[in-house]
Structure formats: structure tokens, C-alpha cells
Amino acid sequence: xxxxxxxxxxxxxxxxxxxxxxxxxxxxxxxxxxxxxxxxxxxxxxxxxxxxxxxxxxxxxxxxxxxxxxxxxxxxxxxxxxxxxxxxxxxxxxxxxxxxxxxxxxxxxxxxxxxxxxxxxxxxxxxxxxxxxxxxxxxxxxxxxxxxxxxxxxxxxxxxxxxxxxxxxxxxx
Amino acid sequence: xxxxxxxxxxxxxxxxxxxxxxxxxxxxxxxxxxxxxxxxxxxxxxxxxxxxxxxxxxxxxxxxxxxxxxxxxxxxxxxxxxxxxxxxxxxxxxxxxxxxxxxxxxxxxxxxxxxxxxxxxxxxxxxxxxxxxxxxxxxxxxxxxxxxxxxxxxxxxxxxxxxxxxxxxxxxxxxxxxxxxxxxxxxxxxxxxxxxxxxxxxxxxxxxxxxxxxxxxxxxxxxxxxxxxxxxxxxxxxxxxxxxxxxxxxxxxxxxxxxxxxxxxxxxxxxxxxxxxxxxxxxxxxxxxxxxxxxxxxxxxxxxxxxxxxxxxxxxxxxx
Lengths: 173, 320
Known about the structure:
The complex is a heterodimer.
Chain A: H1 5-17, E1 43-45, H2 60-64, E2 70-76, E3 82-90, H3 99-103, E4 109-111, E5 126-127, H4 129-132, H5 145-148
Antiparallel strand pairs in A: 1-4, 2-3, 3-5
Chain B: H1 2-35, H2 50-61, H3 72-88, H4 108-129, H5 133-164, H6 169-174, H7 180-183, H8 185-198, H9 223-247, H10 259-280, H11 286-317
């Protein structure tokens, strides 16, 4: 056991020096933490700048979700656009990994800054679409998916859909 | 009548000590928090001092639990032994030259050493009677540690006995025309380290190392029996601090203030130092602990005793 006196003194001084320093801990309910812009809080469904829903019910978020907590049903609107008829997230299973946000092609699902939403019953953690949908565009205020992609090509409707379905067993090289 | 008053006073002292121990649990958490840039318990009452009360109430309302595999008698006896050995030692601690329950008892130091050995029994019986392997490991460690550190502790105290020519704590303190820390710096160091090891506090808390043995010898205890172990630890912390300040720091000697205030102030400062030690030092490995005890402290204590004896003899017979 080597007796490094300097190391001992330094160690004790290091802890004693902390007496004059203010605690780094936040007294949480009174002092709110400063949420970073890229904080991954509760996922929400956002809207376009013109107020339309962004979600096109592609189910990529549901497919990529590692805990399978997203469940949705897609449908066609009368104007021909896809939308989510039902959208549920079970927050008792969500791990806030943000993969759904990365997968979303229309930037509809976004993880915003809400992080404290304790409930007394498990059933209350299943948020329906009305609870998930917010009124704003979230982190991307000017983005509209249909400005960039997904615009229906009218001519495409003329493609004959009558081709015979593929027989998978006959499809060998 | 006088017996009745003494009894009442002793009961009051016990409650006072238990209160101090409860407060120290809270104070330690706040001081550690300060040293670690945290807040610590600051919710209940002024500065969070109500936390001590809340903890005590919580312990008192827990179920009195007896594991089916435990030895019922020894299991019940062990925490009482620990608490008793810590509390009874205060009978011979003089608060000032004339304030002490046992008066100026001539074998006060021996009494304290005996009680500190009784403490080992409490700890070991607790671990053994629990019928739990972690508790038994903690108890084995505790016995080895306490026995190894009692030797250097006793030897460093012998040097003081040589210097003061008394075995009563009052006599030893009164004999200090200058504090023995100046005459016995090595003895002070040895006694402090051994004292901390005897109270099983953090640098030496191997008997209850949470990260290795669930909680050591009191793994199977809950509620107030656990509280007795816990209070015993903190009462013996106070005891060690008071012993060090009595034997090495001059006890009640000091200017401008009543003696008992000096003694309590010195003890409080030492207790803060113990908290500081806990915040700074990591727990040594078990072989390192015994290595320190047997290969450093014991030989150093022997050298210290021999040197003191030689100097004392030289002074008496005029060699020096």
C-alpha cells in the first residue's frame, strides 16, 4: 500500500471544495428543466401548415416500432387522400426511441417535449387519435408532404389492372 | 429517590441519544448531498429536518418480522445487544469534569472497550441467527474486521493510559495540559482509523457492503430491529467522535465557552469529518482492509506504545 500523500490531500480537497458550489440537481416540480430542442418526449400527430392531417396511414411507424405500441387503420378520404381512420399509441409500452419519427415519410408523427404524464390506470395510457393529434405543425412548421411527393398522376389511372395475378409457385428462375 | 431520578435521567439520555442518532442519519444525508452537489432530503420541515422524524415513524410502523429459518431468540437478542452496547458506553462519557452518569469511574476506558467487544457479539449473532448466507458473510466480515481493529485501538489507547496514568475518561481528559494529539499524533491517527472501522462506517463498511452482500448482517431485519442496528451504528459514531475529542483533542478544555460546549463542538466537527471521509473514500477490498489492520496499524501502534513507554520511563528516571 503506497502512501501517496499528495493524492490523498487532493482527493479530500476535491470533495470538500464542493461545499461552496450550488447543487446541480433541479428541485423538479418547482424548477422545470430546460428541454432541448431534440428532446424525445411523447409522440404526437402533427398537421400541415394549412391545418390538414399529415398522417397518410402508411403504417411504417407501426412496423418499425420495437415495442409494437402503435396501432392504426388506414382509409381513403372522399377526396382520394389516405388518412388514418383510427390511430392508437399505448404509452405504457412506448420507449420513446423515436424510430417512428424517423420512419414517418410525411413528418406526421413527432416526439415533442412532453415527458411527465403519469396516470393511475393502465388503460389511460392508450391514447386514441383525438388525444394524439395536435393543432400545430410541430418541429417542421413549413413542411407539406404533398408539395414534394405523393401527388396523384391522373394518367396512371389508365393503366390496365386486369393483368393476371402472379402465381408465386410458378415464379422460379 | 435518588435512584429514581438517576433512572429517569438515564432514560432521558437514551431518548436524547436516539434522537441525536436519528438526526445524524438526516444530517449525514444532507452533508453528503452538499459534498456531492445534490440537495438531499429537503422537503419535510425546515431544511428537511422532518425527514428524520418521518424515517423513525416509518421504521416504527413496519411489521415485526421473524423469518421462519431464523433462530428466534438470538434473532431478537442481536439488535438489542448492538443498541445496548452503543448506548451503555455513554454512562462513562463525561460531558464536563462533573457531568457523567457513572461519576468518575476508575475503569471507564475498560468498560468502553468491553462494550465495544459486546458489539461484535451483537453483530455476529444477528448475522448467524438470520439463517441467511449474505447475513452470515457480513457477520464473518464484521467479526474479522472488528477483532483486527480492536487490537490497534487498544494499543493506541494504552499509550494514552501511560501518559495520563489513569483509566477513567475524566482523569485522562483532565491530565491533558496540551491535547494528546500533539503528543500522540500517530496514536491519534491509529485510533481514528480503528474507531471508524469499529463503527463500520463507509470506508470500512464491508460488513454491510450493499453492492456485495445485500445489506450484510442485517439483511433479514426490518422495522425497529433494523432500526436498532441502524441507531446503534450512529450512536457509536457519536461515541467514537466523543472518545476522540475526549482522549486526543482535549475534551472540555478550551477558552471562552463552557466545557461541555467545547466537547460537543469538537465531536460535531469530527462527525462532519466522518461524513467527509464517507464522501471521499471508496470501500477497500477485504484483503486490503485486513492488510491495513494487521500490517500497518498493529505494528505502528506497537511502535507508538514502545516509544511512549520509553520516553515516559526516561522522564521518570531522569534519562532524558
